[in-house]
Amino acid sequence: MTADSSGIFEQLIGSWIATPSPVGESGCGVLRLDDREGQTVAYLKHGKGALGDMVSDEMIRLRWLHSRLPVPEIIRFVATQNECWLMTKALAGKSARALLDENPDDLGIVINALADFLRLVHALPAVECPFDARLGGPRAD
Fold first, then answer.
1. Are 95 and 23 in contact (CB under 8 A)?
2. In this predicted model, what pLDDT tens digit does every residue of 86-117 receive, in sequence order?
């Protein structure tokens, strides 16, 4: 991090306790931010270069999805010429992975919950979606 980016980092973290989050595969740095009582309040994602572009894209998609699906609320977004930081409010609950780690016998329950969420995603009108993530073939509208 440059001197400027470390200042942004310090400003975003404030008095929260920052712990690296090992979950995720984006290549970006992700910190879990806890308050002094140990409650997770937010997550901070950071990327440089192409990873910064990915962080910016995520912010845009979260902003669009916010009124349509239960997604994390954006607390703050900061972009410089080459870096981006996205701070989002922590959602209540546990990830599917955490639930299965605690109780592998709940696989059916977790699969059903994920399927319910995917039905919500697929129920969104595609014509209203401003994003194009096609793989290169013609779009079937």
1. yes
2. 999 999 998 899 999 999 999 999 999 999 99
